[in-house]
Amino acid sequence: MAARAAGGSGDGRDAGAPLLDDLMPWSVRPLRTGRPWVIAPDAASLRARWDRLVRAPADERERLFRTTRARTPWTPVAALPGQATGTGRFAREEGPCPEPVRIAHGPFDEQWLLPDHRLIDAARPELWRVADGHQLFLVEHGHMPGDTGPALSVTALLPDGHSPAGRPGRIRPLFRRPGGHEPNLAPGLLPLLRARHGESVTALSVLAWVLAAARRTPAGCVVPLPAGTGHWSAGVELGQELLRLHLRGARGGERPRLPGGRRPYVRAAIPPVPEGLAYHPDEETLTLGTGRISPVPAGAWEFRVGGARMLELWFARRSAAGAEGLDGLEAVRPRSWPPEWTSELLELITLLALLDGVRPRLEAPADGPWLTAGELRAAGVLPVPAAARRPASVLGHQEEGPDGQFALL
C-alpha angle 231/235/239, rounded to 5°? Predict the structure, then answer.
């Protein structure tokens, strides 16, 4: 495969900069559930949906299941790696609900998923095989003309790669193998960067640089690489700050917090069924029906990805208005606003406000020099070998196939 580079928006750093697709070559397409009811903002709804489904008569079960070409109640499917779920035909399922797992549902929203392969059209098992306490996932938000939001986000949760608008991007694990082994980086990239910037360069510091420096283009995200160590160190430091925010306390970090006096609080209790979300900029107040939260910085309210306001999107997925017209299992939802949603909303406001505060430093111009495509080719970083774009063989144990059968390896 020929080495690729992409031009940017006219900034000298982007001219000839390598694509993220070459620097982190193994990527996976977003999950495709095929039936929206397998994801929910709360785990209790998923358990109730499962119970209703498995107790339904055969004809109603098929209707509630929502058959697709990829999945019917009789489709033979292997278990998802790491999940102790049934592998018999779902039409015969009578057991208890599998434990829902927390996932990243698109940018900056955390929801729950039923981790049963029989219910998911394209679950991307290769992601589940490398998801562990060491893994981080870089998620592209997809290109949309005029979008000024971040191009990427990072999560310690398994991401579904959902895009609120525009074409969905790709999911890029930081490591190709469990246990934090074999960084998902172009062969030769780490030695090249260490020769330039010292032995302290790691896969995690490359991820931090990517998070701070990546720029969206029609050809994909480009990542200019600095030749100067001072520039590299400053960018990595900024990226590490972003990384701590994105991870929200995962991997031993601290949860995001605004300075005292700027932390959002509930000033009036959110009602059991809040009707409508509105922002009042003069008072820096967010209202959910008669509920009031403040202070809410304008930057948090206006924070968008793919043209969609993140706070509006988050609320719409949980509001009673968003449930209007739903039938079947999707209509099984909380009847009143759970207290944990209020806590999640306060954390999301804090996260978006802090990310908005970092934005000016991301947009500040930076002088070169920059590593050229020729230097990357000379170091063997480009072109990327085809094997680096494929998942590694990480099958260290037997995985149960359909109807309890094990594959002969």
Answer: 170
In whole angstroms, give the CA distance from residue 181 to residue 174: 9
What are the extents of the domains in the chain?
A: 18-256, 265-363
Q: SS3 of 265, please?
A: strand
The structure tokens listed for 298 are 């304008």
Q: Which residue has the tokens 């002088």?
A: 367
This prediction has a pTM of 0.93
Question: Residue-wise pLDDT tens for the chain (409 aa)?
Answer: 334 444 444 455 566 789 999 999 999 999 999 999 999 999 999 999 999 999 999 999 999 999 999 999 999 999 999 998 989 999 999 999 999 999 999 999 999 999 999 999 999 999 999 999 999 999 998 777 778 889 999 999 999 999 887 677 899 999 999 999 999 999 999 999 999 999 999 999 999 999 999 998 888 899 999 999 999 999 999 999 999 999 999 998 899 999 888 999 999 999 999 999 999 999 999 999 999 999 999 999 999 998 899 999 999 999 976 666 678 999 999 999 999 999 999 999 999 999 999 999 988 777 779 998 888 999 999 999 999 999 998 765 556 677 666 544 4
- DSSP state letters, 149-188: S-SEEEESSEE----SSSS---EEESEEETTTEEESS-TT
- First-last CA distance in the chain: 31
Give the Cα separation of 118 and 121 in Å (integer).
Answer: 8
Triad 340, 341, 346: Cα angle to 5°: 100
Q: Which tokens belong to 139?
A: 């998620």
Strands 175-177 and 101-104: unpaired
CB distance 189 to 381 below 8 Å: yes
**Phi-psi category of residue 343: left, alpha or beta, with phi > 0 → left and psi -120 to 50 → alpha:** alpha
Q: What is the dihedral of CA 101, 105, 110, 111, to 10 degrees?
A: -50
β-pairing, 308-309 vs 285-288, is unpaired
At residue 180, what are phi and psi to the nearest 5 degrees?
75, 30
Give, for 23, the enclosing helix (H) or strand (E).
helix 20-23
22: left (phi over 0), alpha (psi -120 to 50) or beta: alpha
- Closest by Cα among 391, 392, 393, 407 to 79: 407
